[in-house]
Amino acid sequence: MKNDHSALRRKIILQVVLIAILAPALWFLIQYLLIDGLFQAAFAEWFVHLCENLFKISYYDGVNMYQQLFRNNRGVWLSAGLIVVLLLVFYFVLSRMTRYFNEVSAGIDQLVDESGGEIVLSPEMDFIAAKLNEIKTKLDKRERDVKEAEQRKNDLVVDLAHDLRTPLTSVIGYLSLLDEAPDMPVEQKARYIGITLEKANRLEQLINEFFDITRFNLQSIVLEREKINLSFMLQQMADEFYPLAAPAGKQVTVNAPEDLSIWGDADKLARVFNNLLKNAISYSFDHTTIEIEAIQRDEIIEVSITNQGNPIPAQKLNQVFEKFFRLDEARSSHSGGAGLGLAIAREIVTAHGGAISAQSDEHATIFRVSLPVQTPANS
Fold first, then answer.
1. Mind listing the pLDDT tens digit for each residue in 325-364?
2. Cα–Cα–Cα angle for 293, 299, 305, nearest 5°?
3. Comparing C-alpha atoms, which of 328, 357, 324, 326 is closest to residue 145?
4. Closest by alpha carbon to 364, among 303, 304, 319?
5. Last residue of one domain, picked from the residues 60, 94, 113
6. Are strands 300-307 and 289-297 parallel, antiparallel or unpaired?
7. How many of the other CB atoms lie within 10 Å of CB of 244?
8. Which pLDDT band, with edges at 50, 70 and 90, does 1 fall under?
9. CA 143: distance to chain centroid?
10. What are the pLDDT digits (tens) for 105-157?
11. CA 147 to chain centre
12. Whether 174 and 242 share a structural domain
């Protein structure tokens, strides 16, 4: 909502105009009623009578005292009366302005106290009430997001701790069999060793996820920038993921201009594209192609990674970059990460001054990374 001060401004101007009219009217009323008008004779008689009783003087001496105090000093009394009227008017105006400040202060207190009700102010301050309620809504949402992320993290830690037992038990069990039977047949020994190695690798992956959780919460991202051949980096990653993609008949293609370069942190950007590519391979259909495309538009380089698979539900599309969010509700002990890959990717891209987004439908899921082309001078 825009800062529409018009209602408040009209209210203040109206009050000022009314006060500007009423102040002199009141002053003239006092002057013509008490000093020169209707109640002048009554006031004079009252004053003379007071002097007779209080000071024990004659009627004529009382009249003379009235003449000396009031009639001869008429200008002084008029000035004093005007000052009193102005002070009363000033107090009235100040009290009206203070009421607005008190309302805003009460609204801020309600915002700080996190009370559940809507903040309501005077009609002429609806724009301030709208902004306070907007801030309140954002703070409430942020608090809910933090609690949800914390709950997801706690659930994840419990899941990972539980999952650690399975591969560890298998490693210990197969190593015990190998230790107890040194003359075991070669084929059987090779099979046990292969299973043990597989479980040990899974155990290492789970431990790395624990480290990711800690690093994500405790470390800020520090960039060590250098000139990067982005085309070479993307092609190299496509080659590295061949063993993961090939068994399911998947391919990874790269379409990028030669010598496409960017100024950034090579290790951290590699992690961004590694996480995105691993995600694309994990959630794509068998015998499909994952397409990596990079293009430069003016001072922006855009990298998109497209895969064909089940679409991401629209209500979850904006959550995939939140930490500890996992698309699969039921986590497998053999697959699924800590829900940090895309969240870390967003943090790294943001640290580079870029943006990351996702779109998904029944045809394809596309993750786009936009990065500014920077130099050592302006990075």
1. 666 544 444 445 555 678 778 888 988 999 999 998 888 9
2. 20
3. 324
4. 304
5. 113
6. antiparallel
7. 14
8. very low
9. 10
10. 888 877 777 666 777 777 767 777 788 888 888 888 888 877 877 776 676 66
11. 14
12. no
Residue 3 has pLDDT above 60, yes or no: no
With tokens 């047949």, the residue in question is 185
Q: Is residue 25 part of a domain?
A: yes
Angle between helical axes of 74-112 and 126-180 (0-180°, round to 10):
20
The predicted model gives 260-277 an average pLDDT of 89
Count up the domains in the chain and report the number. Answer: 3
Amino acid letter, residue 29: L
pTM reported for the whole predicted model: 0.51
CA–CA separation, 288 and 229 (whole Å)? 27
User: Containing domain of residue 302, as a range?
Assistant: 226-372
Q: Are residues 357 and 285 in the same domain?
A: yes
Query: Are β-strands 289-297 and 251-255 bridged in parallel, bridged antiparallel, or unpaired?
Result: parallel
**What CATH number did the domain enclosing 261 receive?**
3.30.565.10
Structure tokens at 348: 């790294």
**Residue 289 forms part of a structural domain:** yes
Closest CA to 298 of 358, 356, 370, 352: 370
pLDDT, residue 316, reads 78
Range list of H helices, the chain: 6-30, 40-55, 59-66, 74-112, 126-180, 186-218, 230-240, 242-245, 266-282, 314-317, 341-351
